[in-house]
Amino acid sequence: MFQQKKKEFKNNEISFYWETEFKNTEIGRIPKEWKVMKIKDIGKVITGKTPPTGDREYWNGEIPFITPADMGDSPYVYTTNRYVTMEGAEKVGKLLPENTVLVVCIGSTIGKVALTYKESVTNQQINAIICNRETNPNYLYYTLLFNSWRLKSFSGIAAVPIIKKSLFEIFKIPLPPLSEQKKIAEVLSTVDEAIRLVDESIARTERLKKGLMQELLTKGIGHKEFKQTEMGKMPKEWKVVTLESISLRIKTGPFGSQLKKDELSNSGFKVYTQENILKNDFEIGDLYITPEKFRKLRNMEVKPGDVLLTIRGTIGYSAVVPANAKRGIIHSNLAYIRVKKDIIIPEFLSQLINGYQILRYQIQAFSSSTTLGALYAKVIKRLKIPLPPIREQQKIIEIFSTIDKTLEIKRKRREKLERIKKALMDLLLTGKVRVKV
What is the tens place of the pLDDT at every residue in 167-190? Predict the structure, then answer.
């Protein structure tokens, strides 16, 4: 994005320049003009509190009650799971104004940062910072986000991580002049807004796909005659079949004793895991087994066109093994379904598993009935699906494929924006690159 050979450069009418004069400080190297400040010196710190939960007069009002679970990836907390009344807010102290910086200081998400969108209150896991006039809240949000790794180190090694208010108040951050803080925040906020718009676009497309899926997988394309079945109303030409009847083979991954951790290696034959399925990416992953071990587990080898299914942990998601996938086997958390391709198209079955509500209910019911919450081969074989003629399957797949390609483009756009944001934070929040004001 930036070229270090140039002393000064512009990007969307904002001028930047490479800093050449630095000073060493206790938090690292920063520009000479910047200061090192303690949190307590740039604003007022307020620890949250929860109103008595049994008192109805304190709850179900209009004031957001923010907990760590309400703090997402975007800077602002727009909605919360619970709201309090004015009486509830008064019970726990002062209302936090808009643009208060929130930092999680207790629990597994310690170091998480957000900003209030409107007047709010928080629970006791959160320390809030009401900035003074010399500190821009948006800049503070980004610099705390960037330095969250340092903040986490303040929590020690307790079973429940905690940063006491007294420790939090002396946490140090780099502080540029106010005018530069505002410019840095403006640049990073622009990228965050672009990410938010992409997220909204992805959500709209996913809703469209979900609606189309329910329509196409229950009514098909162009049908006028329907019948009532055990799976509900469906086109007259369609059948209800079990996965066993449309499969050549259904096989679950190796049991623990068949593939131990010390038998995994950094090269050889690939071991496909849940990550490959959930991200629909067969390139990622670094688990391998030796050729000798592969020969012993040959019956668990995946083939192009196999439908892989998650059967433990995150249960009931699938992806189709592509033609260019490396040779390998399935992990113990997966199963493969090798279908009769003259009866059902693998991609159609995968779409059914991922989005057909009645099938997902079956998967949920069967997995929750087991002690360990898992799907076994005998259960997978009994799962029932609607089966249209091959030609109609192909038409349905083509529609979904178009939507999936659109989603993939949008997700890659989001990933690119995240990379840009990360690079900008590293340059601007360390002072390596300065914003001209």
Answer: 999 999 999 999 999 999 999 999
